Structure of ornithine decarboxylase:
Amino acid sequence: MVLDLGVVMDLMHNWSKMLPTVQPFYAVKCNPNPSLLGTLAALGSNFDCASKSEIETVLSLGVSPDRIIYANPCKSVSHINYAASVGVNVTTFDSKEEVEKIRKWHPKCQLILRIKPPQDSGARNSLGLKYGALLEEVPMLLQAAHDADLTVIGVSFHIGSGGADAKAYHGAIATAKSVFKMASKLDMQKMHVLDIGGGFSSGTEFGVAAVHVNDALEASFGNEEGITGG
Ligand SMILES: *Cc1c(COP(=O)(O)O)cnc(C)c1O
């Protein structure tokens, strides 16, 4: 197998051209090759880690912990303790049980509420179906986080990897916006992070997906400032 890091540089360049308002968080589970991760780190990518070992790998490259999101809505206590000990302070959740664990073991952690996107995008690997809160659960989950003195800084979703229909970004981003609105109605701190998950392929499909993402961001968040995408 040959790994051409020049291609990685071109892909990162293409990302910033096509998705200028979205900061990449590379999902380490896709390929944890250290040369690849090191190149991405040098080019300014952030990282999406699902476990303690993925966090360890990224930190060992000299990446600062504030460039890591611990994007696993169902974490074991020992991994939460590890994240707390190294200063990885952002994680996702989709249940009350997870809020309780974070409150107890990592109270400095900021939360991102993972929601289920509204439609099945026909993806091979539909991560959206496995994880994510339903819209009707959102007020209860926001309240649980609030009661635990934890701040929910934003919303995440995943439309599914591998051949997902890029039109699904429209429904998912609009639903995320409705969660931002619910939080402000409940008088909670203004949300400022929208994690659009993944589902991108290389080649022309990326261009098509980028157009859908940009259109959907404009439609739902166009007039808002300071939203950090991921
Ligand atoms: C796997 C994963 C990603 C990346 O998904 P791709 O479709 O491979 O781009 C992003 N976020 C989370 C939470 C994931 O689990």
Summary: The CA atoms of residues 146 and 188 lie 8 Å apart. Residues 168-185 form the longest helix (18 residues). The beta strands are 25-27, 46-49, 68-70, 90-93, 110-114, 152-156, 193-195, 228-229.
